[in-house]
Amino acid sequence: MKPILSLLCALLAAGCQLIGTTDDTAADSLRLGTGTLSFPDTALVESTDRAVFERLHRRWEASGPDDYTFVYEPICFCLERGPFTVTVEDGMLARIEPDAPDYRRLTLDSLYARVADAYAQNAALVRFQYKPGQELLAGFYIDYNEQMADEEFGARVTQLVLSAP
To answer: Could you tell me the residue ranges of all domains in the chain?
Structure first.
């Protein structure tokens, strides 16, 4: 009985490993569909791992939508706190409500670019959140220099509405 139980446990463990394995190079596309995605804090994964972010970024660049609306809130010591509703059409910012200065006129592409730039600049801290399953960037916080005050910046995406292609 013991050898059979050991064999059964080994097979189950091997099966779990196979099921849980993902090949990042083969899965470089998003399958988002259309509709509204919300990003509740309880459904997010937080990470500082650059490789994980780069995987998310590759997927977004490869197949992120050209037409969408999203809501984001800046995380900073700043006047314009949001939330901002941003509409992107044909990959370009079409409108933002309420109106905001240029440095708050961000698309999802520019949010990904901010995080990528922080890694390139070797920021002291780069922390991001993403929604598993969709593998979408849902927020980030960047502290470029721990010795400076108020240069930190972050954003939190609370909703994404995808238009039909």
So the answer is: 27-162
Query: What is the percentage of the chain residues whose pLDDT exceeds 90?
Result: 44
- Residue 115 sits at the vertex; the CA angle it makes with 66 and 133, to the nearest 5 degrees, is 60
pLDDT score recorded for residue 13: 36
Taking only the tens place, the pLDDT of each residue in 82-127 is 799 999 999 999 999 998 888 888 999 999 999 999 999 999 999 9
Looking at the DSSP bridge assignments, the partners of residue 96 are: 86
Q: How far apart are CA 19 and CA 157, in angstroms?
A: 30
Rounded to two decimals, what is the model's pTM?
0.75
Q: Which residue has the tokens 């200065």?
A: 101
Residues of 22-46 as b/e, b for ≥16 C-beta within 10 angstroms? eeeeeeeebebeeeebebeeeebee
| Cα–Cα distance, 136 to 139 (Å, whole number) | 9
The residues, any chain, with a CB within 8 Å of residue 29's CB and separated by 6 or more, are 59, 62, 63
